[in-house]
């Protein structure tokens, strides 16, 4: 230790000498482009990092890093990471009605996709059938329309769930219905839950501040979300019933550190709810994963992912007293997107590739890429394929996956990882001090942070400080491109007709009884997955099941009347 | 003294992405306009009624759900139906270039794609009303 201190002292002197003899004379005739290089989260990136920075953040190899596969999992959650198996390559896909979408799925599987994330249309996401008045004009637009199990059967025709490494949908507002759709589809394909893996986003709290696909008021919604986790804890421990989302909160404007803190606070709320029902921390913590995001800075993203793993491990171990290492090792999902531009959209391939590379260097488990044409609308087949190919190139060419945590030990990476860790924890504790996630949402704390950031980002873009190449710098094109992928408007009618047909063919009595069972359980304290599964099996519709739940829980009414001058 | 420009910023349909709408609302308010933001999940009927009740000069709709070809013509129809054609209708969001041409022919005054500086929207709204 004494030697270390002496070495650092010597280094400090050397640094001073370098500044005087080398740096300052250089700056005199070649000044830097900017006075400060500040990131989206407000953290200033310095000119050069040295062991002196590590000393400032009290970096300790054993405590802060250790080895991959061991607490606090900074370097990765398994000892070999991608040397054993690359991350899971996901494709987020869905449009129109199930037949057309099924064709796309088969092509994606042929390209070697590991996981299909089924994008459902907005009516489905908020629990309306395709024939509901609020669904008019929206059926099949941002995703595929799913009214009943029949649509799932068509959608996954020729795509056995056990051929994929995971199958997924968001299902944020009605997790029990989403889970049931996959369990029942598996049954139709002759599969048991142990034969395949389901992954859901199923994180309702962020919807109230950043994504908007809510149905029920906040408190019953927390039960709806956590019932899915509880069910899987008992019946499918290898599934991923809830993904705590930083992504949307950051995208909306909060910045990645606050987004991670809020997502962790949301997770804390779910965990408390489940502990209150008698589950132990080690029964439930391994079932959560996180959807982590830092889209504006390559190196920051790498540091951020490492820091989030460390924060999760510490909170789960120290605050919740978990003992099982699987509880502490955080599995991370990420989505390479964010900086894509509408002008010269092919350039987005470069942006998406860099984002994906950062997430891989940060140790991601489940990755999907935006399509370069997504800014125009629904991805074309070619663009969707390129997104998959980018990941396969990263996984199998260029040697990126040969060593674990390749940037670990960098003065820069370790300093910033420690700084971010501290900042996430500070923000997390602030939310907890406000009374936790629900209270922070109700007090407007989340939304204030989001809007402050969103307005700041827009200001920076308007002033040209936030550069989008080809848009506000080096611009050559004046018109946005033609050629967006089109959704056939006739599909709404087709979908409504199929829904009618399914209703005609099903056993009404069984459906009625199942829906009554949903109502009964919703009024009591039982797990909602069980009756929802009955209803889905009987070809009860997503809208019918959600209507029963609306009857018991009510509907969320956004209270805030936004003050634009704030 | 000149009357303040009144603008209604709205979200129509089930689309839950509202940051763009709020950012534009703030930019217009910062530029001295009176801005009403409707919040999420409005129908065209709700939008037009609120616009008339609040006596706004401009309706601005943000949309990312690819449902503009259903909702926008309906808003224009309702404005006509309620004899409120003097209310200007502008929009922003993810709208294909082909549709922008069609919608402008139908009567939408302007459509602002992503990557539009807010100052451009502010000056467009001002021009829209000064020229009347």
Summarize the SSE layout with pairings.
The complex is a heterodimer of chains A (about 575) and B (about 130).
Chain A: H1 2-29, E1 37-38, E2 44-45, H2 51-56, H3 61-65, E3 88-93, H4 98-110, E4 115-118, H5 122-125, H6 149-155, E5 166-169, H7 175-188, E6 198-200, H8 207-211, H9 218-235, E7 242-245, H10 247-254, H11 256-276, H12 281-284, E8 288-291, H13 298-319, H14 325-328, E9 332-336, H15 348-361, E10 366-369, H16 381-396, H17 411-433, H18 437-442, H19 445-462, H20 491-505, H21 508-523, H22 529-537, H23 542-553
Parallel strand pairs in A: 3-4, 3-10, 4-5, 5-6, 7-8, 8-9, 9-10
Antiparallel strand pairs in A: 1-2
Helix pairs in contact in A: 4-6, 7-22, 9-11, 10-11, 10-19, 11-17, 13-15, 13-17, 15-16, 21-22, 21-23
Chain B: E1 6-11, H1 19-30, E2 34-37, H2 44-53, E3 58-63, H3 68-81, E4 88-93, H4 97-106, E5 110-112, H5 118-130
Parallel strand pairs in B: 1-2, 1-3, 3-4, 4-5
Helix pairs in contact in B: 1-5, 2-3
Instruction: Give the CA-CA distance, first to last residue of chain A.
Output: 52 Å
Molecular shape of chain A: globular
Number of strands of chain B: 5
| Structure class of chain A | alpha/beta
Q: CATH H level of chain A: which superfamily?
A: Methylmalonyl-CoA mutase
CATH domain fold name of chain A: TIM Barrel
Largest sheet of chain A: 8 strands, parallel
Helical amount of chain A: 40-55%
Calculate Rg of chain B over CA atoms.
13 Å
Supply database-style keywords.
heterodimer, A: 566 residues, alpha/beta, TIM Barrel, eight-stranded parallel β-sheet, two-stranded antiparallel sheet, 10 strands, B: 132 residues, Rossmann fold, five-stranded parallel β-sheet, 5 helices
